Amino acid sequence: MAGSQTLLPERILSGDIRALARACSLVENRSPGSAVILKTVFPNSGRAFTLGITGAPGAGKSTLTSALIAQLRSRQQRVAVLAVDPSSPFSGGAILGDRIRMAAHHEDAGVFIRSMATRGALGGLAPTTHDLALLLDAAGFDWILIETVGVGQDEVDVARLAQATAVILAPGMGDDVQAIKAGILEIADVFVLNKADQPGAARLEQDMHEWPRPLVKTVATTGDGLPELLGALETIRANLPARRTESHWDYRLRQMFAERVMARLDPQQVAQAVRRVAGRECDPYTIIEEWLKV
Ligand SMILES: Nc1nc2c(ncn2[C@@H]2O[C@H](COP(=O)(O)OP(=O)(O)OP(=O)(O)O)[C@@H](O)[C@H]2O)c(=O)[nH]1
Ligand SMILES: [Mg+2]
Fold this sequence. Notes:
Elements: H1 2-13, H2 17-28, H3 34-41, E1 49-55, H4 61-74, E2 79-84, H5 93-102, E3 111-116, H6 128-138, E4 143-149, H7 154-161, E5 164-169, E6 190-193, H8 201-207, E7 215-217, H9 226-238, H10 242-263, H11 267-278, H12 284-293
Parallel strand pairs: 1-4, 1-5, 2-3, 2-4, 5-6, 6-7
Helix pairs in contact: 1-2, 1-3, 2-6, 4-9
The structure holds guanosine-5'-triphosphate (GTP) and magnesium ion.
């Protein structure tokens, strides 16, 4: 098995989808060998455009992702999708629905779809999502779409991971713009007012006027507005500031470092320290100094 794994990077870079799927599993499970794969493919990454797609449950993210795939494929772009499961690993419903909806693209070698069930320990996206996106980038996909539901910490995380973030809004999900979760508007590079065929769309559009970001109206179920959305995304892609990449790596290097340091902690040692600090036997500052010495 070790032998076949050493060949994985080469096979991924040559466009072998089965090798890519296998590498995704290794990376997702943090299996031995995944670090070597990531190191080897890294020089080939940095070319894809990574787009976060977030918004309230039911806003139409998956339908829109599927419609966007169709648009991109008609322009011969290769597309990878990372769908981050909004619910618990075992609920399955949402992912199953997405699989059925995405089935139209499954026969197409220019489309790669991966559903992730893992969650970060502190809520939000699992750190492995970053590594998976890097793998897909290195594998030569032109676009990487990361769909995640705008709950908890997810949308903030996806904005850090992606080069641009599309926030999907839909009418009928609350009375007005005040009902939209605080924080989700700030991370948008573009707003997609989906379900533009539904009552309340005009009012929502009016409410959004004050936000200094482009807004595109879509009907994901019919594909209406998708060429306009792609146009807006192309404009964002063409004008990406170089510092966006740097701030991404600034965040990511710190996150990777923290993750590695945390992994060294022995849970029993932590439990003991917790008891000592809670019982006022030892101060937490000394504990941290001791931990940093090992
Ligand atoms: N009328 C109308 N219905 C839409 C539109 N886009 C999506 N829908 C419907 O809205 C429902 C939810 O769409 P999804 O694509 O599953 O929404 P989602 O944001 O991915 O949902 P979660 O992943 O569960 O958060 C489905 O029944 C879609 O068919 C649209 O533009 N107009
Ligand atoms: Mg969905």
